[in-house]
Amino acid sequence: MNKNLYDAGYFNGRKADINEFIQNIEEQGLPMVDTAMHFLEKYANIYPLYSDDMKPKDYLEVVAESKRFNLNIKNKYSNQSYTFGIGSKDIALNALNSIQESSGENATQIGCVSARISGTVSIFITESGKFYLERGNKIADSEEEFWDYVFSPNEQLEVIIDPKIFDILRKAGWYEGRKIDSSKYIERLKKGGYTEIFKPAVAFYEEFGELKVLEEDPNNEICTCLNEISDFDFNVIRNERLREKFEVELNIIASCAYSMVFVSENGEVYSDNDGMCVKSGANFIEFWNTVLRIY
Q: Average pLDDT of 20-28?
C-alpha cells in the first residue's frame, strides 16, 4: 500500500458509508460493480496530514472535501488532481462503451482525474478490478498499481487537441504559415532586461504576435500585442515566481485574462496568475488547447 495513503488517514479494515454513492448510481441507471463499492468503502473521506512547511515538489497534497464521500488528491509533482465520486450520466454512459469494448466487462465510474493541460478524464474500475480512463485505455491491473499511477511524479494523461481551437485562432487573424516581423518584440524585451531572447519566443511572436484572441470576451481575452505584454517592471515578478518554482529561464509572450504567459528555451509554456504558477503546455499548440478548449 502506498505510504501517502496512510499519511492521509487510511488504515487497514477501513469501511466508509457509501450508501449515497450507491443510491446515486441506481438513480442514474448506471451499472454498479462490487469492486467499485469495495474501493470507495476503503478510500472515501480520507483526511489529510499535511504540513505547510513542506515544499510542493517534496510532497503530494491530499485534500478531503466535506461534501459526500469525495476524496480529492492533488499530485503537486505532475499537477494532476484526482476526485473520487460520481460524474455526470452523459460522461459515464459515453465512456462505458469504450471501457466495455476495451475490457470486455462491465465497469463503474469511481471518479476523475484533471490536469490543466490534459483536461478532465473519468476513471472506471471493472468487475475484475482493473482501472481504465474514459477513453478506454487501461492504467492499472490492481489497486496497488492504480495508487502508484496516482502518485507518480509524471503527468501521464494524453493531450487531445481540440480542432476548434484553430477556428478560434483564425477568427483572431491567425493563419497557417503566418510570420510577422518580430524585431519590435525583441527590441522591447532587451530594453526590459531580458539578456537572452529564446528562439521559441521569436517563433511565437512571428506566428501569433499582434493577435487578440477571444476579443469579444474581455474577461478571457488572450492578447499577444506588444503594448499588452511590455509592462516588464510588473511582469518580472511573475517571471521570478515561475523560474523559482519550475527552475527554468523564461521569456514573456502573451497576456491571458489575469495571467501572463511565458515560454522557456525548449518551447514549454508557463503562466502566472497572481501567484498561481502553472505549466500550460509542452508547446504552443498545447498552450492554445489549454486556454481555448472550453470555448
A: 80
